[in-house]
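Example pasted here:
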Amino acid sequence: MKKPDYTILVCNSYRVAGDAQGYCNKQGATSLVQHITEECSDRGIDAVVTTTACFSVCSQGPVVVIQPNNYWYGGMNADKIDEVLDALEEGNAVEAYLIA
């Protein structure tokens, strides 16, 4: 099995009971998953994109984490994701959106 180059985690505010009910979910995190998946496919970025439970940085949401780079991005929307993916293709981070 070939491991993908990147794992992109999108906070979807899942709670212990499995319900998505927090800030990131309410701010459109679900639509970001589809957008990121399609953009990665279109760009040829080898990535797995998935949702997660709460990252506990709600004030920074929606939050997207890119591994193995350990880039934590906050306040994400489709336009910012496009900038992040542009930078990722060049091997860089978008410093303005990093929260950690």
